[in-house]
Amino acid sequence: MEPAMKHQYRLGIDAGGTFTDFILADREGGLRIFKALSTPQDPTLAIRNGLAVIEEETGIAPRDLVSNADLCINGTTVGLNALITHSGARTGLIATKGHEDSIEIRLGHKEDGYRYDPDYPPATMLVPRYLRRGISERVISTGAVHTPLNEDEVRDACRHFLREGVESVAISFVWSVLHPDHELRAAEIVREMMPEARLTVGSQLYPQVREYTRTSTAIVNAYLAPILSRYVQAVDGYFQGLGARQPVRYFQSNGGLALGSVVSDQSVYAINSGPASAPRAALYLGEPYRLSDIITVDMGGTSFDITLTRDGQANVSKNIDFLRYRIGIPMIQVETLGAGGGSIGWIDSMGLMQMGPQSAGSEPGPACYGKGGERPTTTDANLVLGYLNPEGLVGGRLPLSIEKAREAIRKHLAEPLGISVETAAYGMFTIVNNNMVNAIRRVSVERGYDPRDFVLNCAGGATGAHITALAREMGIGKVLVSKLASGLCAFGQIISDVKYNYMAPIAARLEGAEAARRLDETFARLEEKGRADLLADDFAPDRIGIRRSLDMRYVGQVHECTVSVDPFPIDEAALERLKAAFHARHEELYTYAEPHSPVEVVNVESAISGAVERPARMRIAQGAGAHAALSGTREMIFDASGRKHETPVYDGAKLGAGDVVTGPAVIQEVTTTIVIEPGWVAELDGNGVYVVTVASAAGAAPERAAALTEA
After folding, report:
1. What is the pTM of this model?
2. At 132, is the secondary structure helix, strand, or coil?
3. Which of 62, 103, 124, 491 is the most exposed place for a label (fewest CB within 10 A)?
4. What element of type H or E holds 635?
5. Residue (of 620, 545, 604, 561) closest to 30 by Cα position
6. How far apart are CA 165 and CA 226, in angstroms?
7. Distance of alpha carbon 163 from alpha carbon 154, whole angstroms
8. Sign of CA dihedral 592, 597, 601, 605
9. How far apart are CA 202 and CA 180, in angstroms?
10. pLDDT tens digits, 109-130
11. Please, what are the domains in the chain?
């Protein structure tokens, strides 16, 4: 049994492109969700606004909440936004002479999907050529020094950076992972001459073989570190001023929590942290049903994020091109698409309707928000189709104008295409769904998974209106929709553990006692450091967990694949166990294995986690039947004919455990709307999760639902 929370509250905050979500858990099992509009120009303002909303709706003052919370957790998009908009710090690079341009040469080709596109432009360099300085020094692949470090050249580089107003410096030398002394000495000189600058040392941040990946990762980290450091300082200071008992924890893209000091130094870990918490939430929701193969889809105001868990483990990727920059650190695999509630509908040069990736965001927002937006968006289409409450979203705090939605669709889509507003709206709905389905296929079918073997989990405020349509298109027969769906990533953060990754390079064939000894000693060294860090963070020894991974390949191969294993003593006999795990993983990824070929390991990693006490599960009282929650009907459109069906609308707050809603229907929660298409049925369980499944054909017709409503 999980230990109870230490204090009265736990607060999770997840900043999205349009909304910032707040999850408030209390010790008795209460879980509530709140929303505030995101404020990219000042992310801390959204936090203050959200706490004001909580006070308005609960009467709990920010100081009383924070001072009685065991943890306040923040998932931030500050780093992501800086990378997208290229608004990070002015950064300088110190590299081995002759390797200053490795980040521009890259791997000699463009990213997958654009490799043969002559018109695809080069990526924007985060460090321009004039801020890259080559230093005379050289370590060779054995770790031996070929050319000593020229310290005077390092000092010259610092003087140049000071003249150019550099805020942050990345240091990355060739083979520094085998002999880091040159990087460490260069770092000492930079600290002496540029005491105000942030500093990233490649061999410390990402001690793994592969120069380009290590250099690129160090540059991204250096580019973001001043931005994240200022943000962390502001958030930590704000919560300390409210009497926080514990330091704020920040969510990382590796799926775990970290202290602000860690995020400030290792900012690259916070790049895509928001959607990375979705797999943890999905597994938590699926636990009572023993569901471990789950695809989670999160449609917010700006983007659509997809994550996948298989056999209870989230897919983790390393060495990925994220926003065109190679990042080596382990990250929860997230497929992101420009498809959200604010995605704009437009007509291309062929006269075809398209949706996104351009978004209206929160300012000015969809046309129906009445805040100056004039372009038709997904939200406008859903309002015209009858799916959304015309009285407004977020419990009426965000009023909607169906007249403005219709006018935007009429002007920009319906009239130019010569179709009705309703037909155009359903076309928008269908196109954005098709875009999302194709993205789901990329993380499932294209990676060898059959989506029909998975459950679809709903996250994000806009997903509920599309979830059964997506499941229908994918052939998925079961859907989970939590009452907390619109803030599921914030919820995932408050049930996540502290997690840090410790890495080391090691070049060894999996043969003989010497290789076994080196592997065992390397893992022991990493895990000793990890345990010490978590013990210093007040985690009891029995709350510390370890997960190992190795980058392995067949001798002669160019690239490795990562194999995850549980910790165990490594002796000569255990090498066979590691090889068997590699053969199985290689076959899973590439459909073949070579059991008789020699195997070598290149890098190793230990993920050390500190288990955090879980809040109690939500408890829903037994219901009196769905009819007791019926709030009325609304005309809705479910196909391209434009035919309107009088469809029942249910108040989610009045539905109880065991209540069953047959589609077509709409369930209105305070922060999300769930459309149950014809042919589907939803049942609310005692943990606040709607389990939506395919119904029998007899109950599928809209006319059938209308008859039940009238009865």
Report:
1. 0.88
2. strand
3. 124
4. strand 630-637
5. 620
6. 13
7. 14
8. positive
9. 9
10. 777 777 788 888 888 999 999 9
11. 9-82+230-273 (3.30.420.40), 86-219 (3.40.1360), 498-610 (3.30.1490), 626-710 (no CATH)
